[in-house]
Amino acid sequence: MTIWDPVVVARLAALELHARTLVAGFRTGGHRSRRVSSNIEFADYKPYTPGDPLRDLDWRIAARSDRLVVRRHHAEEELAVHIVLDASADMSTGTAGAYPLAGLDGSKWSTASVLAATLALWVSQRGDPVGLSVLGGKQVQWPWLPPKAGAAQLGRLYRVLSETRPEGRADLSESLMQLGPRVRRNSLVVVISDLMESPAEWGPALDAFGERRCDLRVVHVHDPDEWTFALGDIGRFFSPEGGLPVDADPIDVAAQMPEVVEAYLTEVRAWLARCRGLHVLAPTNSELGGVVSQLIRGM
Amino acid sequence: MTPVLLAPLALALGALIIGPIAAHLTRRKPTRRVPYGAMLLLQRVVKRQKRRRRLYDPLVLLLRVLAILAVTIAVSRPELRYPGVLPEDGETGPIVILIDNSLSMDLVASPDGPEDVTLFSTAREQAVSYVRGLPDGVRVAAVTMGGAARPLVPALTDDRGSVAAEISQLRQGHGETSLADALGVARRMLAGNGGRVIVFSDEAGSVAVPEARDELGLLSRQDIALEPRPVRAEEVGNLYVTSAVYGDGLEGGSVRVEVSNVGARAVEVPLVVRLPDGTEITAFVEVPAGGVATETVTVPRVSDGGVAVVELDDPWLDADDRFAFHLPRVGAGRVLVVDGDPGPTPTASEVYFLERALAPWGVNGGVGGGVLPDVTAAGGLPELDPETHRVVFLANVSDPAPIAGNLLAFVRQGGGLVISLGENVTAERFNASLGGLLPVPLRRPRSLSAVGEPGISTELPDVTLPLFEPFARGGRMAFAGTQWTRLFTLDPFEDGEDRSTLLRTASGIPLLVEGRVGRGRVLLFTGTVDLDWGNFPLQSSFMPFVQRIVTYLGGATGGDGARLSGQVGVPTLVDLVDTSAPIEVQGPAGTVAANLTGAGVRFVPQEAGAYQIETPGAPPLARVAVNTSAEESDVRLGPELISLAAEVDPERYQRRVPLTVWCLLAAVLFGLAQALLAWRVERARLRDIEAARAAEGVEHAA
To answer: How many CB atoms lie within 10 A of CB B686?
Structure first.
């Protein structure tokens, strides 16, 4: 495939268009670091302990209450944002997507890639470094783009998003375990995936991000038709990632699906809660404005 | 109970069950392949569905298969056949009533009820009621089957009142059940014109019913229906004596009594052994349920021989509580020595040697066994009784004429007589007065050697002869030392059936000749039993020889033929040598009716106990120990008559219950059950779908 592949070009254009449209809807501004440091903006107090700088002692409180407390301040620095994108074959399914993408119209991948592009654009416009990791997929030129700032990085990122075709398995557990040590400390990690692997398998891998004090935010992309199993008549359902097909009657399955989905989401949220991760649902059939809004809140 | 299919080919419809099974196994195969990106969720749904289907699907399949099977079986027209069931044909032909009045029917109906309410009285009451309840015009007869089968009326009659009256007057018997004979009588009364035989019986024992198999076949061939009306007791139980045997033991020996208990609980009862002389020995015996116990009682040191009786008392069946058995004379045997030559010195007296040979340890030493000699002179000979004295020694009596009659009767009745000779004896008198007793007429005394010279020795005896059998182990050679200087010679004779020479001298002169007279035996000893004619009393063989003579001649009172056994209800024949004298049969309840035949006397005992055949004023000629049938005492239920009848004629004695309707009903029930279950499953599924859609709607609205 060449860079002039019309499909890729069409996707690139569509990604930019969608991203800019979405980013235009949000205000721009600075963000606080998760790290506490010496700075002018007050953060909170803590009891004095030997070794703390004396200049940070709050003499007024010491005079009033005879207690020694130290003032702490937010550090102001750049925030590295690392986008982890699931490009497994399962992401190619779905038909109800609101963001057409050439060759992959309505799929979970189209929603996920638009979301990644939007987020990258928004971060880039703030001057912060942004990186990208693609899990699985085909024709991935750079599966790992370390966070960098600037237009060139954004271009590379768009190019990867445009060229990548969802295929194979993501192996979330293995991939996240390998990725954890590579991301910067105190960075923001945004995982965009349909999470169609057992939470009990990939959940423990999230601890790697917690250890590096990363702000973890997981965007759970899903096709509502898949979750309600509104898939027409009886059929033989198979996963693009492989495995045994299952013969099912959508009427029977649909009756059971809500309970199963609820149990599944509860399990996902339980694992994310362990590492204080934010769980954001991203149905493919709805506008991503709300999702992006949840995602960048607190940045 | 046997299930039968009248149309078994219809079972081929059972192949229909393949339908639902195939439907369950081959579900719809989807042709549409759909890529699906949330397989994790679908697999979890499928897992939940499988859990539910594992519960419901096999149940629905089972119910459907059962419904089809029930229809299939219904079409094959099933029916149940119960063998051994009375046909309900409402027969109104002639009827013969069979009433069992055998011993076992004397069982009390209830151990807690009155003793006079027995199985027999119950059966009799039922039979009377049955006869009186028959419609007018039905011809009826009645036959008893306790002991010999006997019709109560000569032929079938429509006079039901008379038949009922005859049945009412019937009494309990103590004989065996003669079911086969009674069925034969009934069959002959019905004379091949069909009809029914109603049997009122307890059907106890293991013999009576099986023996009737052939008769049942004949009844069936003559289209005669058998209708058993079993009469059963509330509690089946009975104690009875199975054997009583006299044997060795302390004192005068012991009687070992074996008692059987056919009841379901252990019982302890008193047991009384009543000896012929009136002595009663009481013991208690505990018999386990369904088992046998033995009790041994000690007999006094002296007791008369005869028929003894064991009596016990149980709450069930009285008629078999008495058991008779023969008891031999216990204690010393008495020997009468008629002293014809009281000598001036002991060595010149036969009695001196005989007394010491008969009772070497004195009179008291013979009480526990052995011989008690009584000595008398010829003139003082008492009336002889074989029950009192077993053997009479006639020692050198000069004139036996006064006692000849008594001796003859004594020997004829079984007594033993030993005649030893001597100088007092004269051939003419002996031959004249004892001609009927002497095996061989006497001739004269004869000297065998000169004075001072040794006499003729005795030939060694033939130990194959019963008299000398004990000497085979030793003592035979001692006879060789006996020498005779003088002996009585006899008329020439040849051994035959009535007489035989048992011992001779070395020169061949008969020394001991045996003759048979009536039931008794006579030994003629041609020498003396003192030292006049020889040295025999001084020989070591003398004492055992005399003792052996007593045993040989008087071993058993009355001989073997006088001890007989009989059974209640069974004709008993006692052979008698002389039937010219008046004969009586005395039973436990007095004189028993008896028929004299040329060979003896014949009577039918009606109860257990001791029976004596006797001539008035004379010792008994024979004793008969009569007992009831042990088979009748075993009152446990044997093979059922109706079951045997069903074996002989299965078609007649079975009940048929068609099952088609029940199978169809079962099919409907199975069908409804599976429909209900399927409906519930479908309803639950639809409810889930509705709930899912509602949840989806709420989600969309949100």
So the answer is: 12
* Alpha-carbon span B265 to A157, nearest angstrom: 103
Q: Do B36 and A196 touch (CB under 8 A)?
A: no
The letter for the amino acid at B91 is E
Residue indicated by tokens 């009577």: B603
Q: Report the residue from B31, B35, B37 with minimal CB separation from A196.
A: B37
Pairwise CB contact (< 8 Å): A234 & B691: no
Q: Which chain B residues contact residue A248 at CB under 8 A?
A: 42, 45-46
Residue B34 with chain A: CB contacts under 8 Å: 231-232, 235-238
Distance CA B592, CA B589 (A): 8
- Considering only alpha carbons, which residue of chain A is nearest residue B37? A90
Nearest CB to A261 within list B41, B49, B689: B41
**Pairwise CA distance, residues B351 & B345, whole Å:** 11
B603: pLDDT strictly greater than 70: yes
* B686 to chain A: closest CA residue: A255
- Dump pLDDT digits (tens) for B346-378: 777 888 888 888 877 665 544 445 567 788 877
Instruction: Return d(Cα B339, Cα B352) in angstroms, integer.
Output: 10
Distance from CA of A195 to the nearest CA of B (A): 9
pLDDT classification of A265: cutoffs 50, 70, 90:
very high
Q: What is the DSSP letter of B423?
A: T
Interface test with B, best of A88, A256, A281, A286 (most B CBs within 10 A): A256
H or E segment to which residue B461 belongs: none
Chain A residues whose beta carbon lies within 8 Å of the beta carbon of residue B39: 90, 196, 237-239, 241, 243, 246
Q: pLDDT band at residue B413, thresholds of 50, 70 and 90?
A: confident
- Structure tokens that stand for B568 in this block: 């209640």
> Percent of chain B having pLDDT more than 90?
29
Q: Cα–chain-centroid distance for residue B181?
A: 20
Largest CA distance in chain A: 78
The ipTM is 0.80
Predicted local distance difference test score (pLDDT) of residue B554: 65
Helix (H) or strand (E) holding B375: strand B371-377
Q: Which of B31, B32, B33, B41 to mutate to test the interface with A (most CBs of A within 10 A)?
A: B41
- Measuring CA to CA, which residue among A230, A235, A60, A54 is closest to residue B35? A235
Whether B29 sits inside 8 A of A247 (CB atoms) is: yes
The pTM of this model reads 0.48
Q: What is B139-165 written as a DSSP string? A: -EEEEE-BSS-EESSSS-BS-HHHHHH
